[in-house]
Amino acid sequence: VKAMSYSSGVRTQHVFDWVSLIWFTSVVSVAGSQGVELQVIPQVATECGKNVTLTCEASSSREMDIKLFSWLGRNKTMCQIGDGQADPEVLCENKAVASNHTLTLTLINVMPVDSGKYLCKLHSQLGPVQKSTVVTVQ
């Protein structure tokens, strides 16, 4: 019985080591191959009737040729570089300084229907990346 529990413990540790190695390798390969980092605030809480601004900052140590930079929410594209105003209930602003790009989405007069997940997506010659923000309306 002792040998069996020891063997089970070794097997569990072995599986944990492999899972850790696979996770670490995937993180390193994603970061290394793309060279692009997106930064968003993961959770934003606001009150009914207020405006809320979601900011997505993209940075890279290499020059980016951006093909697509957008905010998606409520099952549609809310704003996108080069598209102008996609939705009359939002304001979009894009800024670029050197290899840093910022896309802001301002939700106007938020209501409970605006609660949910908003996704910032960037696609460049370095590959696709995305990060999400969850908006809670109280």
Write the layout of secondary structure elements.
Elements: H1 2-34, E1 36-39, E2 43-46, E3 52-60, E4 66-73, E5 76-80, E6 90-97, E7 100-107, E8 116-124, E9 127-137
Parallel strand pairs: 2-9
Antiparallel strand pairs: 1-3, 3-7, 4-5, 4-8, 6-7, 8-9
Descriptive report:
With 138 residues, the chain is of the alpha+beta class. 24% of the residues lie in helices and 48% in strands. It has one helix and nine strands. It has a five-stranded mixed β-sheet, with no helix packed on it. It has a four-stranded antiparallel β-sheet with strand order 1-3-7-6, with no helix packed on it. The termini are far apart.
> Low-confidence spans: pLDDT under 50, at least 5 residues?
18-33
What percentage of amino acids are in beta strands? Answer: over 45%
Mean pLDDT: 79
Q: Note the gap between the termini.
A: 56 Å
The dominant shape is elongated
Strand line-up of the largest beta sheet: 2-9-8-4-5
Tell me the major beta sheet: 5 strands, mixed
User: What's the number of helices?
Assistant: 1
Which oligomeric form is depicted?
Answer: single chain
Instruction: Kindly name the structural category.
Output: alpha+beta
Pfam families: ig
Organism: Lates japonicus
InterPro entries: Ig-like_dom (IPR007110), Ig-like_dom_sf (IPR036179), Ig-like_fold (IPR013783), Ig_sub (IPR003599), Immunoglobulin_dom (IPR013151)
Domain Ig-like: 49-136
